[in-house]
Amino acid sequence: MADKPSDEPRSGSGEEPSVPDEVWEKFLRDHGSAPKEPSARARMVTERLRQQEARGESPAGWRAGPTAAGRNGGPRKGWAVLGVLLAAAVAVVAMKPSLLPGHLFGAGDADPAAASPLPAETAAPTAAPSSADPETPTLARPFAGSPAERWADGEAGIVLPKATALGSVSKDRVELALRRTRKLLVDANLDPKVLSGARPEAALSVLDPKQPALLDDLTTALRAPSEANDPLALFSRFDPKEVKPVGKVVKVRGRITFDKGDFAGVAVHADYTFVYPVVRADGSTEVTRTIVRRVIDAELPDPTRYRTTPGRLNLVRYDEDAGNSSCDIHDGYLHPRFPSQAPADGATPTGPSVDPYDRSRVIGQDDGCGTVSRT
Questions:
Q1: Residue 371 needs a FRET pair 20 to 30 A away by CA distance; which of 61, 93, 193, 213 works?
Q2: Which of 345, 138, 303 is nearest to 210 (CA)?
């Protein structure tokens, strides 16, 4: 930045510059990078005009803009009306900015507060979530119109409680049981390869091979699925020849709790719902969702008192409830229904209509092959 001439007094001297204003203005014109500070005369003029304006004596045209006259010299009533309309429009947009196309607060008329993430679930819900706006899911917004739009994404939805000691059971043992349960949930329900039908090796690795018949039953179910041996009881799987996922996000909501177990160890209770958006594998862009809720009771027994593999979980109970999946097909895959599809041949649904998002509902009971009230 250029300096002022050397004969200008230092700041704070109380003196006015000795250089005439016209000389200083010429210097500024010749040195474009110089600071464009008002001269003493300019400051005096500005102050005089400010005082006149305060007294209502401002000269015509001062800060008034162009004269509002038409081509014939008469007043431009049209511009005045337009000004009123613009002012009204600004007020409306200020109250509802979503009226602007592509506004900064989200697309369409969606309420940004409605899409804000829910806090983690800390207690069993007592009712189903309220109805969302009846929006059709799309490739860009696969969870539109679903309560799950506000749920956590994937693993972020499986939040472990703070581990504490349980009598003689150390805090470290409790933390290990919680981490093993979380790994089982993640690998069985969120691993992209498992969702596409691959063998869930990582999930199986946390289970105790010494637990009677469990791994044998699961291996049989994965190798030769049937109504009696269904891998969907513990794993979420889709046939890649039939459907493919929309994006990489699976919405998750639920909770994990722990207590003393029956085998001198840690008992863990997990209750989670997973929402999977999919499209048909034939290139269709129609989006639908399958909702799977899982309830698992596992225990990490005391290996010094029981014949168990250290660090491996024993499954005490595992129940699942799949919403929007054919319940009369037993090939080891979830089979979502699409709104445009005609009813498939086979058994007519005999069970009641249920809300798959209702986490207050008890599952594990045989309700027959029913329908869902929403997806």
A1: 193
A2: 303
